[in-house]
Amino acid sequence: MSLSLAGVCRGSALVLLHGIRPAGVKNGICTPVLVFSRLSLTLCNHYSSSKARLGLSRHVASRLRWANEKYEKFLQRRFPRFYVLYHTFMTGFRLLFQNAKEVRIIKTKMISNNVKFQNLSYREMETLRQFRRDMIKAIPLVLISVPPFANYLVFVLMYFFPRQLLIRHFWTPRQQVEFQRIYHSRRAENHVAILTGLTKTVPAVGDSRLQSRLLDLCNKVQSGAQPSVPEIQAVKGLFSGPPLGMKRLDADHMRLLCPLFFLTPWLPAFAVSHRLRGQALELLQLDRALHRLGVHELSESELRQVRPPAGSSVKHMLSRVGFAKPHSVHVITLQACYLRGVDSSRLSVAECQDWLIQWLKLSNQLKGNFSLSAKASLE
């Protein structure tokens, strides 16, 4: 069958544009089948399979982001309360994955460079410490969700018992402020009992001058006054041996110290003693690292752990549905001052810095004095 002039010209033009001369072309005449076959091969060679896969993945990712944005807008408009919970959980998962990535980098550094925990920077120590506590708290929830269809029960439990079951990443801003106050109030409930126990041990002190200093120190704290660093240092020898050394304390007194470190007291006496010593040692190591870094190098988020502000739409939604007022989106949780026994939500940044400087002056004088380190947060 003869070829039309238009078909021949169109096929030849395509071949010339791509700079190839297909087999079977004689005197400027070629068949359309051969032209388009070679044209397809040329395009496949022009765009490799890896580039095609990359372009496809980018297209799919962009479509998923678009669908997610539409879904979030729908939730924000139709179900504002559920949107706040949804936004909190999505942000929590992102923060958790980011923390897990940071921990992996730190662990790799420790293994490859043979770096011990006490030689890490303050921020690296704090990241490992907090991530370990979060994972320990998350283990019971993971075990509950193992049986089939148990995930539905987990969702119900997480909704009704967020403080007991959820880690800090999945708390709403209002919950973080509320839970911090609950934990601090429970910690403060034991202050009176601990000070009473210290007062009862005064007669067991052999040196009359140390007896007088310890009694004056206890009375000063009970009256609400702030003792100075030299006043505490004057009695530090009593906490390195009898009667107030960590190995000399009775089980009841050690259990009173457990809430200061957010530890459970319902363990055997030897386990309580071991955990208290471990927490006190970790706190001393954090103090050494913080001293190397410098208190003024800490940002406000590291002093008081202020969560980054949410977007303006989320702020409006939080205030609208009653989860939090706009100014409370900057949420304060456990960190530098709070870890050492102070409710940092009642202090300014400058006051947090001044308090930490005084704390480090005392901590730098302690060399393995775990008992005094455990009780210093009472001051």
What can you see in these coordinates?
- The protein has 379 residues and is mainly α.
- It folds into 2 domains: 68-164, no CATH class; 177-305 and 326-366, no CATH class.
- Helices cover 65% and strands 0% of the residues.
- The chain contains 18 helices and no strands.
- Helix 4 (80-112) crosses helix 5 (122-144) and helix 9 (191-200) packs antiparallel against helix 10.
- The radius of gyration is 33 Å and the shape is elongated.
- The model is unreliable at 1-36 and 306-334 (pLDDT under 50).
Q: Tell me the total number of β-strands.
A: 0
- Report strand %: under 5%
Q: Can you write the helix and strand succession as a string?
A: HHHHHHHHHHHHHHHHHH
- Shape descriptor: elongated
Mean pLDDT: 74
Name the structural class: mainly alpha
Key terms:
18 helices; mainly alpha; 65% helix; 2 domains; 379 residues; single chain; disordered N terminus; elongated
Quick summary:
It is a single-pass membrane protein. With 379 residues, this protein is an all-alpha fold.
Ordered list of secondary-structure elements with their pairings:
Blueprint: H1 5-17, H2 32-46, H3 49-78, H4 80-112, H5 122-144, H6 150-160, H7 162-165, H8 173-189, H9 191-200, H10 208-222, H11 229-233, H12 251-257, H13 269-293, H14 300-304, H15 312-321, H16 336-339, H17 349-363, H18 370-375
Helix pairs in contact: 1-2, 3-4, 4-5, 4-15, 9-10, 12-13
